[in-house]
Here is the input.
Amino acid sequence: MSGYRIGVLASGGGSNLQVLMDKIRAGDLPAELSFVLSNNSKAGAMAKAKAFGASAYHVSSVTEGSESLAEGRILDLVKTHNLDLLVLAGYMKKVPPAVLSHLKNRVVNIHPALLPAFGGAGFYGHHVHAGVVARGCQYSGLTIHMVNEAYDEGQIVLQRAVALPPGSTAEQVGALVLRLEHAWYWRVVEAFARGRIRPTLSDKPGEAVDARDFLSDLGPTPDP
Here is the structure.
């Protein structure tokens, strides 16, 4: 088993989490899933984590009694599990500043649009795709980026675009983007695990990681 430890924060169905677990099981992703945490006890991600045999935690202001206590609990779990990387997969809460400080430049997120377009507070999930359709965009895609204190403003690690057929609905856009997510997010996590993406000690948002080795190796988009 790999010594590289990842934790996943998720609020929804956990389809990207499932890809990560499948790749770990297949030996393609040399990492250990230390835990999955959700603010939603009914999240599909929780059931998927348990089926995989990973520790699964429901942590929210309801379970802990307050938002500050919930943030403290998350930090405690991150420290206890001695994570190398924290992976956000559809997590609908801001990561506590103390966690970002403890895991300096080691928290990564995926956003279902080509940032900086359709980013920031309020732009998540279906709202992103509805915005893309409303603006009549010909393309959408994904952005994998490092996480800092501001929504969707951390260093961009990777972007991939997809052409949108005329008349696409928000649901159709979402399905196209999700295929890209499943093809690429695990590859970025793999690059962290293999040292092809390296966190830095920089305080500059645009220099959180050195991804030159990973980016130099990229070929054409794989068929998901």
